[in-house]
Design a protein that fits this description.
The protein has four helices and ten strands. The protein is α+β, with helices and mostly antiparallel strands. The strands form two sheets. Strands 1, 4, 5, 6, 7, 8, 9 and 10 form an eight-stranded antiparallel beta sheet that branches.
Length: 175
């Protein structure tokens, strides 16, 4: 998925990397759509962190509404504004992994920086005279595969539908 968010990249990155980002996700059937448990920091090397994270995602499909605990190993890099995750323990999933990347989007570059295309913030600030606005371009890749025997139709269709719908709901709340 690719989306544009009207916030600076560091702010959008914090939504992904902050373990206590519950305020961004609305109520869903009387409870938070995404709840976070305390994370366990496994390693920190400067701007790079590796943590074990537990989230509880609420989902609904047709008339069913449930909560699903997810344990992930998350590696994020504050300098590059990137991150990736993989499952440690996710019910019904054989493979559950993904990545995200937040990049600056120079909104007024065509209007204010006519001769050059800015490659960084300093260059953008210089050519726009400090008047240029910055948004964020977010790229999210997610891969999942239901575990056996749920990877066979029609079960895989339901699990795929629930996973895609839940991911889209989370992204819509971020926007």
């Amino acid at each position: 998925m690719k989306l544009t968010v009207g916030r600076i990249p560091e702010s959008v990155y914090l939504v992904f990397a902050n373990p206590l980002n519950n305020q961004y996700f609305k109520e869903f059937d009387g409870k938070n759509f995404l709840e976070s448990k305390p994370r366990k920091l496994l390693r920190k090397d400067g701007p790079r962190r590796i943590a074990e994270v537990e989230k509880i995602v609420s989902w609904n499909f047709l008339w069913l509404s449930r909560s699903l605990p997810i344990k992930l190993i998350v590696e994020d890099n504050q300098k590059d504004l990137t991150g990736n995750y993989k499952k440690k323990k996710v019910k019904f999933m054989k493979v559950f992994e993904g990545s995200w990347k937040v990049e600056p989007l120079f909104i007024d570059s065509e209007r204010l920086c006519k001769q050059i295309k800015p490659k960084g913030r300093e260059e953008y600030k210089k050519c726009s005279g400090g008047r240029g606005r910055i948004a964020s371009k977010v790229t999210i890749d997610q891969y999942f595969e239901p575990s056996s025997p749920l990877n066979l139709p029609p079960f895989s269709w339901f699990i795929r539908g629930i996973t895609i719908k839940t991911t889209k709901n989370l992204i819509n709340m971020l926007e």
